[in-house]
Structure formats: structure tokens, C-alpha cells
Design goal:
about 200 residues; five-stranded antiparallel β-sheet; four-stranded antiparallel β-sheet; 13 strands; globular
Length: about 200
């Protein structure tokens, strides 16, 4: 199954993120959910590895990261019903300082809306490069919140939000009666390094 990446690169370069509709089908989302349920760190079971190695990722990542992109990690992010949990503004670079910027792919395993805790992003925020983060409980947040315009990214089941590790984003609470599951998959360029060892600052992805 091929991926329609028309205009993906242009939208990603301009805004720091882009949405790929229907990257996975409903039954495929079910299969990913089942495979991820058997995840026991640090092992990556074969049924889940099959989805990490899916050829569709190559169609996306080669254009954005260059030849021979590398898998970094994956995890299922679930917001519980009526849980009220939020994630503050941050860059994924704050958790993994990799240069040049790596790629985060956020796959909706069910419909994701503002009601059940979709991501909010700041278009073009990746252009500012890495910013300082500080602890906020057990997670991190951007120290000096610039307060620039943000947009919600609602996704249908199987859609993927593809964004730079430098893009500012957050998520709101799940105010619905159902779970909000999403699959996070991240990739880096073959020649990337930890930012502390990089000869120059990360690019905007």
C-alpha cells in the first residue's frame, strides 16, 4: 500500500508539521494496538516490529531525513477517560537532543479530537531551533512560553501527524468517556548525533 506524500515535504518544511490522512486502515490500527499491548521494554516483539518496519515509513522518512533513516523508538500514548491529564508546551528535542532534528510520527489509533485530547501545534515554531526546557512534575515544558498562535490537530483513525522534533506542541485533557490511544514512532537521520556532540546547532528538520 503506497503513501500519497503529495506536498508533504513542502508543508512539513514550511510549518514544521504535516498530516497524512489514512496512513493506516482501521483493521491495521487494531493490529498495531494488539501488537503494542505485548510490548515489554526493552524488547520489541516481532508483531510490533512488523509495523515499525512497514515500507510506508520509508516513503515518508527518506524525503524528510535523507537516505537510510533510522528507527529511534515507539510507544503507545493513551489518555484515560475523564482523566484530566495534560501535557505542557514542549519540543521532543527537549527529551532527545539529536541533531539534525529527528521526526516524530503521531498515529491516531482511534479518532482524536479536541474533546479527547488532540495535540496542539505552533506552526513554524521549528524555525526557532531548540529552546530551554524545565521540569514540570515528571515531564518537561518550555521554560519561556512565547505564547504564539497555536492550532489543534484533529485526526481521524489511521491519520498520522508528522512533525519535527523542534516543533512546539502540547495536548489537552481527555474529556470524553472513551480512551484516546495514539502510537508514537520516531526516526532520525543516519548521520545524526547527540546535540552535545554536534558541530553545529540542529536544523529545522
Amino acid at each position: 500500500m503506497g503513501v500519497d506524500t503529495t506536498d508533504l515535504t513542502a508543508r512539513f518544511r514550511a510549518d514544521g508539521y504535516a498530516v497524512l490522512p489514512a496512513l493506516f486502515t482501521g483493521p491495521e490500527c487494531d493490529a498495531i494496538t494488539v501488537a503494542a499491548s505485548d510490548r515489554r521494554w526493552p524488547d520489541l516483539p516481532a508483531p510490533l516490529r512488523r509495523w515499525v518496519d512497514d515500507e510506508r515509513w520509508a516513503e515518508i522518512t527518506v524525503d524528510l531525513l535523507g537516505p537510510d533513516p533510522r528507527f529511534v523508538r515507539e510507544q503507545v500514548l493513551t489518555k484515560w477517560p475523564r482523566g484530566g491529564a495534560t501535557v505542557p508546551w514542549h519540543q521532543d528535542h527537549g527529551y532527545m537532543p539529536i541533531a539534525p532534528a529527528f521526526l516524530t510520527c503521531f498515529v491516531a489509533l482511534d479518532d482524536i479530537s479536541q474533546t479527547n485530547g488532540c495535540l496542539w501545534v505552533r506552526p513554524r515554531s521549528h524555525e526557532g531551533g531548540p529552546v530551554e526546557h524545565v521540569p514540570d512534575g515528571v515531564i518537561l515544558r518550555i521554560r519561556d512560553d512565547p505564547g504564539t498562535d497555536a492550532v489543534p490537530v484533529e485526526l481521524a483513525r489511521g491519520d498520522a501527524l508528522v512533525m519535527s522534533s523542534l516543533t512546539h506542541h502540547r495536548s489537552g485533557p481527555n474529556d470524553s468517556d472513551g480512551f484516546r490511544p495514539a502510537w508514537l514512532v520516531q526516526f532520525r537521520a543516519a548521520d545524526s548525533t547527540d546535540a552535545a556532540d554536534a558541530p553545529s546547532a540542529p536544523s529545522g528538520g
